[in-house]
Design goal:
heterotrimer, A alpha/beta (308), B mainly alpha (360), C alpha/beta (246), A: Rossmann fold, 2 domains, 11 helices, 12% strand, C: 246 residues, alpha/beta, four-stranded antiparallel β-sheet
Chain lengths: 308, 360, 246
């Protein structure tokens, strides 16, 4: 009996690792089937994997990952995948169970695992949870890209060299993007550097590039904004005379419109500066449909709105 | 306190919630009186697929379009309930439950399907589940006020006909009024009341706003007009206080807070209201029982006196207690009233006045 | 002059396959009190509802003073069973009686002073004047019945349909109702009442209809209310369609 238990234990432990031995298909040189949750991850995987990967994204443009529930079709896609990349840190909140269960049978990787915890933010209102919107700090996102490179290499050691090369090239591009953002940000006068959006997606952006950030709904869109929150934000905007607030592509603009009306009632007119990409990218085929393009769009829109 | 209402957002949310409270409270009264309380729940849950389908068909996220879809679906739901009860052996509440679950489930499936569309999040259809009061805009207020006003005006117009419908539909039919058409009308008004509240309180909790104000109001008065008016007032009170409370506390969702306020009003009404209140009834019960005990002791004293050869002898409390337990407090009351006198430490006897009283 | 107040011909009502009334003929002469009598499920209430147009018959017709009910509404008053209503409803006695005026008022119009006066007069007739403001939840069975009667009286109808008016009322009320019926008869009105108490049929009514899905007999009480007929009406399920040859 003890031997049986030991055998079972070993068997269980064997299935416990985050990455499992590569499937036969992969070793034969066929493209790796990858399923990614948000578009930014899909994009990064494609950049690193090149022709070696066939990426299927679950959440397309305009889709809110905080609220997204996996459908039957999604489950089938996940089952078929060789590896699954997701953000982690509870971004895909309604898929937590699914990802956990799939993780026991398939290779899964949370791209934020590569980020040391001391570089993550934990807003006081949500004690115990980390803010998952790490991709807006390009520096942190570069760590995620490295995680992707390492995971792919482990899964498919044969192409490890290719992954290293692709990743290196992409990381250079990201370095340049980071520099661009900083440069553009400096065009906005100090006192106007406030980004106000529907939910707290931009904390990392603010931290990295020197902006004060306020979101109406907190770090998850699942939380309902209260009338008090709208009031408080409206007061803040009117007092600081902030010229523009922003809607997000994946969140209903109603609450921001409500904030705007509240600000107007206080005698100050604030513009809707434009739509920012927060939890999802733009349409595929457009520049905003890539990570780099999306970040550029964001900073350009922000600068345009706030510079005055 | 009043300067709270200087704030634009609070004013908007409070007004919207008040409008919803007034309409659903007033029209909900008829549903509650007709024992159709859960109809409100069925209608609001059935409205969900209507919102989704309206979005799918028109691609529009305009609240008016979505609300119209909600109304149509809610109305269809009630028609289905009526058809099912009429043509099958399924009872009314079972039919309600079935339609409610099927429609709501279908709505959830549609929402999951819709979420894959890029413009879905922008439409914010999810807000119809639990409401998003803070997202109320000026034009929403106008819509709510107009629709609510029309519904209330219609109710007032056919007031006596609705009274007939609620109290004695058979008699109404005999007078020549088209009771079935009136039933459809009342249900339609209820649908309107419900859908104007969906954006604030959401599909799941809206039933409470239909039932609670009416249930509370019924405790306070026995006149139909007052019940309806009071229900409207309670609905408004719940709406406004819910809005104020949720604006004071950070991150307190407005919809559920309004419902909690409505619930509090119901509890207070159940406990304290007039003759029907539980607290009052308990107090009155105690008082009546005490009266009975005092009268029993008095009667026992008279009986003992009549049986005993020495009519003016006193009797001990213990003896009396045997006859009707715990006689001492009653004896003290009787002494105060002058019906009994204390001859000695533990000897009690009737006075003249007491004897007369006992013989009555 | 002796046009029948009510004329029912070949009336058949079925719920799905099951017949509730089968081929019923009867005539109620004007100015009489007719009792409808029969076991449970015999179709007594259905008969009244069919005449009043609340139930659609599968066959046959019913005429009130020679015309269908829809054209005679003003002349007919209906007193439903007491149990068909929730007496916990928030309203008072006067308000219920006022409902009798709704037919005359038509849509939207609210009762006015004239209507209130008529209602009070009806309450006087049934001896309930002091209770005009009383909540109906606080009424006894007999008082409830009187309220319903007053509501019918206020319609100033020529024909009155009553469903078990004597059910569950105290002796005083019962006497009062009988008085009322007799007074109506004196004034040339016609009353058709579903009656539950066989003991009092002969005393209270002039005419009787024995019903058990089919009409067993109908006519003056003396002629029709026989032991033979009662046996036919109440004796087992003999009267259901199929087993009774005639």
């Amino acid at each position: 009996m003890p031997k049986l238990l030991l055998a079972l234990l070993l068997l269980a432990l064997a299935g416990c690792g985050p990455v499992q031995p590569p499937s036969a298909r992969v070793l034969e040189g066929e493209a790796i089937d990858v399923v990614a949750t948000i578009g930014m991850i899909s994009d990064a995987v494609e950049q690193v994997g090149g022709d070696r990967v066939a990426v299927e994204g679950l959440m397309g443009p305009g889709i809110d990952p905080h609220l997204y529930k996996a459908s039957e079709g999604d489950l089938r896609r996940l089952e078929r995948a060789d590896v699954i990349f997701y953000n982690g840190l509870h971004l895909e909140a309604k898929m937590a169970d699914v990802l956990e269960r799939i993780g026991e049978r398939r290779a899964t990787s949370a791209v934020t695992d590569a980020i040391p915890r001391n570089r993550l933010q934990s807003p006081p209102a949500f004690a115990g949870q980390y803010d998952p919107h790490v991709w807006f700090d390009v520096g942190l996102w570069m760590l995620a890209v490295e995680q992707i490179r390492d995971t792919l290499s482990e899964l498919d050691p044969g192409s490890a060299a290719l992954y290293r090369r692709n990743a290196a090239a992409y990381l250079v591009e990201l370095e340049r993007l980071d520099a661009y953002v900083r440069e553009q940000a400096s065009l906005i006068p100090e006192r106007r550097r406030v980004i106000i959006t529907a939910h707290d997606a931009f904390n990392y952006f603010g931290e990295a590039y020197g902006f004060e950030v306020r979101g109406l709904q907190g770090i998850s869109t699942a939380a309902e904004a209260g009338a008090g929150d709208v009031q408080g934000l409206a007061r803040f905007i009117a007092e600081r005379r902030i010229p523009a607030i922003f809607v997000e592509s994946s969140v209903s603009p109603r609450t921001i419109q409500a904030v705007r009306e509240a600000v107007q009632a206080r005698g100050f007119d604030v513009e809707i500066g434009g739509s920012l990409f927060s939890d999802a990218m733009g349409d595929p085929g457009t520049p905003e449909g890539t990570y780099v393009g999306m970040v550029r769009h964001n900073i350009d829109t922000i600068v345009e709105g706030l510079r005055g | 306190m009043l300067d709270l209402f200087d704030d634009y957002t609070l004013r908007t949310v409070a007004l919207g919630s008040a409008a919803l409270g007034i309409t659903s409270g007033a029209l909900g009264t008829f549903a509650v009186l007709r024992r159709q309380s859960l109809l409100g729940d069925a209608i609001s849950h059935a409205a969900l697929p209507g919102v989704a389908i309206a979005f799918l068909l028109t691609g529009s996220k305009a609240p008016l379009v979505l609300v119209a879809g909600a109304a149509l679906a809610g109305f269809l739901g009630t028609l289905l309930v009526m058809a099912v009860t009429r043509t099958t052996r399924i009872k009314y509440d079972s039919a309600l439950g079935i339609v409610l679950s099927v429609f709501f489930g279908f709505g959830l499936v549609l929402l999951t399907f819709i979420q894959r569309r890029p413009d879905a999040s922008q439409a914010g259809l999810d807000r119809f589940l639990f409401g998003q009061a803070a997202g109320l805009l000026q034009r929403d207020l106008v819509t709510m006020a107009v629709l609510g006003g029309i519904a209330l005006a219609a109710m007032l117009l056919v007031w006596k006909e609705l009274k007939l419908l609620a109290f004695d539909p058979d008699y109404g039919a005999s007078l020549g009024f088209p009771m079935r058409a009136l039933d459809v009308l009342l249900t339609s008004l209820l649908v309107v009341a419900i859908v104007i509240g969906l954006q604030t309180v959401g599909v799941v909790l809206m039933a409470a706003m239909v039932i609670a104000p009416a249930a509370a109001a019924r405790q306070w008065t026995d006149r139909l007009g007052l019940v309806v008016a009071l229900a409207a007032a309670f609905g408004a009170l719940a709406g406004v206080s819910g809005s104020v409370l949720s604006s004071e506390a950070a991150r307190l969702p407005t919809g559920p807070t309004i419902v909690l306020c409505a619930t509090a009003i119901v509890i207070v009404s159940l406990l304290g209201a007039g003759r029907r209140g539980l607290v009052w009834r308990a107090l009155r019960g105690r008082r009546d029982r005490r009266r009975l005990r005092v009268a029993a002791v008095l009667a026992d004293l008279l009986a003992l006196e009549q049986q005993h050869p020495d009519a003016h002898r006193g009797h001990s409390a213990a003896v009396l207690s045997v006859m009707s337990g715990g006689a001492l407090p009653s004896l003290q009351v009787l002494e105060r009233r002058g019906h009994v006198q204390r001859l000695d430490e533990d000897e009690w006897a009737l006075t003249e006045a007491g004897r007369t009283e006992a013989e009555r | 002059m002796s046009e029948a107040a009510i004329e029912v011909t070949d009336l058949t009502v079925a719920y799905g396959e099951k017949p509730v009334l089968w081929d019923v003929d009867l005539e109620v002469p004007q100015g009489t009190l007719m009792a409808i009598v029969g076991p449970n499920g015999a179709g007594k209430t259905t008969l009244i509802r069919a005449i009043l147009g609340m139930v659609k018959p599968a066959a046959g017709q019913a005429l009130v003073h020679g015309k269908p009910y829809e054209e005679q509404r003003r002349r007919v008053a209906y007193v439903p069973q007491r149990g068909s209503v929730d007496w916990d409803f928030p309203t008072n006695v006067l308000d219920v009686v006022l409902m009798g005026r709704y037919g005359r008022l038509g849509w939207v119009r609210r009762p006015g002073g004239e209507d209130r006066a008529a209602a009070r007069e009806a309450l006087e007739q049934v001896g309930m004047s002091e209770l005009a403001g009383r909540q109906i939840s606080q009424l006894s069975g007999g008082q409830q019945q009187r309220v319903f009667l007053a509501r019918a009286l206020v319609q100033h109808a020529d024909v009155y349909f009553m469903d078990e008016p004597f059910q569950g009322v105290d002796a005083t009320t019962e006497r009062a109702i009988v008085e009322l019926l007799r007074e109506l008869r004196t004034r040339g009105k016609t009353v058709v009442a579903v009656h539950h108490d066989l003991q009092t049929v002969q005393e209270y009514f002039d005419q009787v209809t024995l019903l058990n899905v089919r009409r067993i007999g109908s006519g003056p009480v003396g002629e029709v209310f026989t032991e033979e007929n009662l046996r036919l009406t109440y004796g087992g399920r003999a009267a259901l369609f199929g087993r009774n040859g005639a």
